[in-house]
Amino acid sequence: MNIIFTGGGTGGHLVIALSLAEAAREQGHRVIFIGSTSGQDRQWFGDSDLFEEAHFLDTTGVVNKKGFGKLNALWKIFKALLVSRSIIRDFHADAIVSVGGFSAAPAAIAALTTKTPLFIHEQNAITGKLNKVLRPYAKGFFSSYEEGDNHCDYPVNPRYFQNARLRDAVKTVIFLGGSQGAKFINDLALEIAPWLNEGKIHIIHQCGLKEEERVKKGYADLGIEAEVYGFTTKIAELVERSDFAISRSGASTLWELCAAGVPAFYIPFPFAAADHQFHNARYIIDHDAGWCERQGDGLAQKLQEAILSDIRPKSEMLRHLIAPEGAVEIIEKVEERV
After folding, report:
1. pLDDT in tens, 180-237
2. Which of 48, 106, 231, 282 is most buried (CB neighbours < 10 A)?
């Protein structure tokens, strides 16, 4: 089959496109990508040899725009839609797979206007606005939070499964604020660091490039040795070495920790669209496989209690919530329905 993958803007969407496209290529399908000149799309796939072609169209997000800005964004999407229609026809596409984000709008809508089967992967527990509009017209909708025909295992790098282990004691904690970092989590880490140090618990901290200097100085002022990373491509390796995570609850991070069997104390980003990070974390909490607290004062005590608790049952439960080969599973369903 000839499959077009579309969507992106942020790493959370693009890592899904990467996983699905790799699975499709491994099964002998031809793949191309349609994204945007805005966001991180070009950084991810501009020089990639994964896709036969990668098209980056002039689009921007619509949701946060007002007045003329919103009209301009919609006009850009319309022009990109026309370009997407030509790409679909020239490639003789059999299916369009959208991974969400504003980058997905032109090609996803073009799929409907050219009567090309559209498939949607929703990474969050709360369906995004674009996906909500397009879902009734899609040939398939995939979610790791829903039961029934739509359920799929989240596409996670196989390394997280290969090196998964049962955690029963906390010797190393990892603080994860996402690729941009999270000041609240950084401050919480520095607040609780003396307590962790007294308990001989090693600290790994991904703090974001903007906060790296401040956080490193904070640990130095406390006289505490910690592994601090502004940004790193070795998160999988760091997670393997960790027994407990303090993290935002973006979908990819959440499911990677799940696949690795690492219990986590989630602090959702309070300004995420439709509060989706909170609902992502609630899925884990509802299965008694972690902790979730709103951002605010007084979390240090609750975090200490979680670290001192019996983490083994939660680590065991996490490994039942996700199975490997999620990307392959989705591509096989696409094959069946086209």
Report:
1. 668 999 999 999 999 999 999 999 999 999 999 999 999 999 999 999 999 888 999 9
2. 106
Three-state SS at 272: coil
Find the radius of gyration of the CA atoms of the chain: 21
Tell me the percentage of the chain whose pLDDT exceeds 90.
83
30-36 sheet: strands from edge to edge? 54-57, 30-36, 2-6, 95-98, 118-122, 140-143
Predicted confidence (pLDDT) per residue in 107-148, tens digit? 999 999 999 999 999 999 999 888 999 999 999 999 999 989
Phi, psi of 145, rounded to the nearest 5 degrees: -105, -15
Counting every residue written for the chain, the total comes to 338
286 by Cβ neighbours in 10 Å (0-12 / 13-18 / 19+) ranks as exposed
Distance CA 129, CA 45 (A): 25
pLDDT value at residue 179: 62
Residue ranges of E strands in 144-270: 172-176, 202-206, 227-229, 244-247, 264-266
CB of 116 closer than 8 Å to CB of 95:
yes
Q: State residue 218 phi and psi, 5-degree precision.
A: -60, -45
What pairing do the DSSP bridges indicate for beta strands 118-122 and 227-229?
unpaired
Residue among 1, 6, 41, 12 nearest 269 (CA): 12
Q: Strand (E) positions, 177-327? A: 202-206, 227-229, 244-247, 264-266, 291-292
